[in-house]
């Protein structure tokens, strides 16, 4: 199976995934639900057709192995997740698993035997929209979930527990309750997660692929509140107002200036203020708004930038209270540390791109991925982005198979270096 045949195999697999999980206008593959189950079955069948060794752990993590020269060595692992958001696109997550299969197929066809096993991994439950737990499937496979997670986590669409959904899928929630693990970070030589890019950078740059420098950490506040005083719009002069909307607008301006200065200094940062609203039972065109709720999402590869942002939020709260008489409560913080990708693996992918004649970018990942779990446990980790139009988590995902093939060429040209002793 040459490169064209490998890409054709991938194309057929994507078509089967789409057909099995079609939920117009997109696809739905609920974590521990029928769509995810069907995706795992399709991928497992493709792996068996290639001639890979296929097995699943008690929580449904799928391992598909191409034997290497020395099977006692820790394997190279390539993969991603197979669940998808409701009415989403067909490629988010799945592209990483299918690329692992395509690589294994090409290596097998060409008679290339790596010095160690190559394991293609199909993970469960990465999309947090189904269960409120970050990277549930990969964390469960490493034995990182709380023992009570099967009984306390409830799926957002059904209200039923993780344990109930797992049992319905023929899987074993006791695996989590007992703190067991099927993956050992000390027994993995390297983890590579190919993934569609979820923004417009590669489209705008005209490049088919990118080597990821790191995954941005985040500082999230989901339940922020600014509390001032309600008043009559025509009766209270500017100096006497405690306008919550203007207070949050002032905060937004300070955050945007912080972003501008960081960006001009070459620092990595993206910042979003969302869910901005007043109480519809109280607001009106003739009332000064006394309360505003909003959310904050601040992301950077640089821990120092995240710390500076946290300090800015504190300073702004004090300044706004003193100048406007409005109290800002950011609520609980949800911090996620950034993860740098392994320098050796990045260098191998860049050399592979050069050898394959594929022009690539180097860029940060703004979204979290299962790679964050692996890197956080000390596994040498890298990500390879594939160009994709129209963003992700929507039915308009549009990864061209030519771009998939170019990214596959990069991986195929670098895999011996990655797998070297």
TrEMBL record:
Q: Does the keyword 4Fe-4S apply?
A: no
What is an example of a Pfam family matching this protein?
Answer: Peptidase_M20
GO MF annotations for this entry?
Answer: hydrolase activity, acting on carbon-nitrogen (but not peptide) bonds, in linear amidines; metal ion binding
Which residues are listed for Zn(2+) 1 binding in this entry? 81, 92, 195
Alphabetically list the UniProt keywords: Hydrolase, Manganese, Metal-binding, Zinc
Gene3D superfamilies reported in the protein's UniProt record:
3.30.70.360, Zn peptidases
Query: What does the entry list as the binding residues for Zn(2+) 2?
Result: 92, 127, 393
Details of cofactor binding: Binds 2 Zn(2+) ions per subunit.
Q: Which domain of life is it from?
A: Bacteria
User: Which cofactors does the annotated protein need, by name?
Assistant: Mn(2+); Zn(2+)
State the family named in the UniProt similarity comment for this chain.
Belongs to the peptidase M20 family.
Q: How does it assemble?
A: Homodimer.
Q: What is the designated name of this protein?
A: Zn-dependent hydrolase
**Biological source species:** Roseicella aquatilis
């Amino acid at each position: 199976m040459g490169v064209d045949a490998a890409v054709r195999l991938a194309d057929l697999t994507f078509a089967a995934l789409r057909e099995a999980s079609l939920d117009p206008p997109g696809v739905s593959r609920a974590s521990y639900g029928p769509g995810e189950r069907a995706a795992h079955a399709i991928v497992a069948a493709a792996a068996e057709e290639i001639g890979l060794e296929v097995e699943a752990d008690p929580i449904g993590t799928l391992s598909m192995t191409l034997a290497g020269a020395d099977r006692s060595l820790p394997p190279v692992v390539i993969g991603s997740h197979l669940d998808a958001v409701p009415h989403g696109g067909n490629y988010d997550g799945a592209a990483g698993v299918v690329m692992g299969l395509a690589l294994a197929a090409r290596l097998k066809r060409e008679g290339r035997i790596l010095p160690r096993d190559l394991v293609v991994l199909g993970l469960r439950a990465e999309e947090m929209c189904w269960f409120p737990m970050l990277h549930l499937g990969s964390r469960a496979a490493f034995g990182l979930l709380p023992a009570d997670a099967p009984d306390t986590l409830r799926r957002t669409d059904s209200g039923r527990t993780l344990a109930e959904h797992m049992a319905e899928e023929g899987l074993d929630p006791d695996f989590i309750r007992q703190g067991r693990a099927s993956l050992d970070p000390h027994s993995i030589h390297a983890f590579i997660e190919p993934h569609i890019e979820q923004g417009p950078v590669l489209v705008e740059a005209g490049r088919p692929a990118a080597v990821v420098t790191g995954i941005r950490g985040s500082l999230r506040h989901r339940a922020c509140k600014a509390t001032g005083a309600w008043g009559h719009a025509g009766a209270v002069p500017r100096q006497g107002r405690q306008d919550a909307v203007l207070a949050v607008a002032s905060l937004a301006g300070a955050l945007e200036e912080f972003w501008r200065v960081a960006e001009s200094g070459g620092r990595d940062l993206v910042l979003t203020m969302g869910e901005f609203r007043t109480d519809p039972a109280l607001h009106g065109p003739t009332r000064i708004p006394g309360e505003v709720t909003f959310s904050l999402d601040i992301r950077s590869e640089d821990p120092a930038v995240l710390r500076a942002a946290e300090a800015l939020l504190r300073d702004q709260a004090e300044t706004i209270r003193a100048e406007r008489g409005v109290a800002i409560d950011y609520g609980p913080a949800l911090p996620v540390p950034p993860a740098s990708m392994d320098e050796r693996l990045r260098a191998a992918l860049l050399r592979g791109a050069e050898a394959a004649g594929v022009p690539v970018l180097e860029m940060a990942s703004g979204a979290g991925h299962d790679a964050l779990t692996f890197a956080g446990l000390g596994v040498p980790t890298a990500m390879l982005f594939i160009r994709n139009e129209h963003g992700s988590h929507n039915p308009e995902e549009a990864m061209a198979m030519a771009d998939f093939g170019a990214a596959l060429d990069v991986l195929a040209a670098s895999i011996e270096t990655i797998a070297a002793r």
